[in-house]
Design goal:
- The complex is a heterodimer.
- The longest helix of chain A has about 45 residues.
- By secondary structure, chain A is α+β, with helices and mostly antiparallel strands.
- The radius of gyration of chain A is 31 Å and the shape is rod-shaped.
- Chain A has 10 helices and 4 strands.
- Chain A folds into 2 domains: about 190 residues, no CATH class; about 80 residues, no CATH class.
- In chain A, strands 2-3-1-4 form a 4-stranded antiparallel β-sheet.
- Chain B is an alpha/beta fold.
- Helices cover about 30% and strands about 25% of the residues of chain B.
- Chain B is built from 8 helices and 10 strands.
- In chain B, the strands form 2 sheets. Chain B has a 6-stranded mixed β-sheet, sandwiched between helices.
- In chain B, a hairpin with a 2-residue loop joins strand 9 and strand 10.
- The chains are: A alpha+beta, B alpha/beta.
- The interface between A and B is medium-sized, with 23 and 24 residues.
Chain lengths: ~300, ~220
């Protein structure tokens, strides 16, 4: 029977075929419990993956829309260069707005490290110009060249050196979440294969009788495949539900939330874990089918 | 129906059976005799392709056994009814479902008619035990149930391996009568047995050919019976 035929038979079911293979309590409980546990873990892996993806986007967006020009020049030239930079930025496509940070702004920025009484006038603190970009952004290489020509003390920091490792780290986390999902599916397949082989071995006499009376391998296999697929689907359904409840009960994320408090789903992504039970069932279907045919080939 | 040409089979280096050349025509009745361990069961297994010859060729219903796929062998077994001495059943299913098992596992599962099944169960005298589980049956009941299961697909060939090994003489005769009845309906019957009394009893009812396996060879017997 083809895979398609087998799938149709799986959906339709065959009460007689289901009865022919005796119910095996141990492998049934093992399959149910393990697939539930795997689905529970898969929900968390998916939550980690989506949360890290969300964080990566958030960090990238926040840093990508702003950049800074740092003007380090002798005190007498600071104002002139600041004015030159602002004029230059007004004429630069992709710059939505630009403003020089006031002494109060700079004091507030440095306060967490140096305290509120920092004497800015006595220290050679560079002047900072904050740039807000348009969605299209500006040509940073071109701007650097023009700054070098018109304000030699100005250095453009487009946050790329901060943004890239953050985005890479978040991307890796997302990848790890995906890898964890693949590993969980692989472990589910291995577990179902072992349980199916165990059930086939325990029912060797049944299989021999069925072969003796003319049952094809596909018929015998389908009885096991259907049973294990339904058990895995049921177990994974329960595990997914419990996983979603557990994620929902985690502390809610705020705007300033770190990764752990942001480990959740948002909006439509709450529906993504619903793919876990059918995915687990499909894995069980393939794993049991392969295990069944391999075992049956060893029997006459 | 079954044709062997110089067929051989061995479980190790030494062949248990060799030089088997014979033809079992449709509608014939055969006894297979020989001492224990001579290879009677092995011969029957060659006849339903549970074993494939290690030498020569075995042809089943026109198909070379070694050329059959696993599905081909399964389909072929739907044309062969096998009765084992140890009567293998599915212990978790009631008797009537065990008897109907060949129909259940075949594409003809939908053709199981309660009336026909009840008639068959009645024919082997097990109507009162139809809902019993196999472990609850006596040896004779199991043998009759195995026979009913073997013929439910209306097979062309019935192979019985020591079908009377675990039953008393009266039950042996009942089983023999059932097999003779089937032969009269045109079925080919091969019975492996070392019960010479059973063979003599059968010869009074049906024209049976007796084959003897000895020293790995098969030969016609009869004069000594």
């Amino acid at each position: 029977m083809s895979i398609r035929g087998n799938l149709l038979a799986l959906v339709r079911g065959d009460g007689q075929a289901d009865r022919v293979v005796p119910r095996s309590g141990q492998s049934a409980r093992l399959t149910l419990a393990t697939s539930a546990a795997m689905a529970f873990l898969a929900v968390f892996a998916m939550a980690l993956s989506t949360a890290s993806g969300r964080l990566a986007d958030r960090w990238s967006d926040a840093l990508a829309q702003s950049s800074t020009i740092r003007i380090s020049a002798p005190a007498a030239e600071v104002e002139a260069q600041t004015w030159a930079v602002l004029t230059l930025l007004e004429q630069t496509p992709g710059v939505q707005s630009a403003r020089a940070l006031s002494d109060e702004d700079q004091q507030a920025l440095l306060a967490p490290w140096f305290g509120p009484d920092l004497p800015l006038d006595d220290l050679p603190i560079p002047r900072l110009v904050e740039i807000v970009e348009t969605p299209e952004g500006y040509d940073s290489d071109g701007l650097r060249q023009r700054l070098a020509a018109e304000a030699p003390g100005a250095v453009l920091d487009d946050h790329d050196r901060w943004r890239r490792p953050l985005a890479e780290a978040a991307g890796r986390l997302r990848l790890l979440g995906g890898l964890a999902l693949v590993l969980i599916l692989g472990a589910t397949a291995a577990m179902v294969t072992l349980a199916a082989q165990s059930a086939l071995s325990a029912n060797e006499q049944v299989v021999r009788v069925m072969r003796l009376v003319g049952a094809r391998d596909s018929y015998i296999a389908s009885a096991f495949v259907r049973r294990f697929t339904i058990r895995t689907l049921t177990g994974a359904g329960v595990g997914t539900l419990l996983g979603l409840l557990a994620v929902a009960m985690l502390p809610s994320a705020r705007d300033t939330a770190a990764l752990l408090t942001g480990l959740s789903f948002s909006g439509a992504s709450w529906f993504w874990p619903l793919i876990i039970p059918p995915l687990a069932a499909a894995t069980a279907f393939v794993a049991t089918r392969v295990a069944a045919f391999r075992t049956l080939k060893g029997l006459k | 129906m079954i044709e062997m040409q110089d067929a051989a089979y061995g479980y190790g280096a030494e062949p248990l059976l060799s030089g088997l050349s014979l033809h079992l025509p449709p509608g014939s009745f055969h006894f297979l005799t020989g001492p224990s361990g001579a290879g009677k069961t092995t011969f029957l297994k060659l006849c339903y392709a549970e074993l494939l010859p290690t030498g020569g060729s075995v042809s089943l219903f026109g198909h070379t056994a070694t050329g059959l796929s696993r599905d081909g062998i399964a389909d072929l077994r739907q044309r062969i009814g096998v009765v084992h001495q140890d009567c293998r059943f599915l212990d978790h299913l009631p008797l009537h479902e065990n008897i109907a098992l060949p129909l259940t596992v075949s594409a003809k599962g939908g053709l199981v008619q309660d009336a026909n099944l009840a008639e068959l169960v009645g024919w082997v005298g097990l109507s009162a035990r139809a809902n019993a589980l196999p472990p609850e049956l006596s040896g004779g009941e199991r043998q009759r149930a195995a026979l009913a299961r073997a013929i439910i697909m209306d097979p062309d060939l019935i192979l019985a391996d020591e079908p009377t090994g675990n039953v008393d003489w009266e039950m042996s005769l009942r089983l023999l009568n059932l097999l003779v009845e089937l032969n009269k309906l045109g079925k080919t019957v091969v019975i492996a047995t070392h019960d010479l009394a059973l063979i003599r009893a059968a010869k009074q009812k049906v024209q049976a050919r007796v084959l003897r396996i000895q020293g790995g060879q098969i030969m016609a017997a009869g004069a000594d019976l």
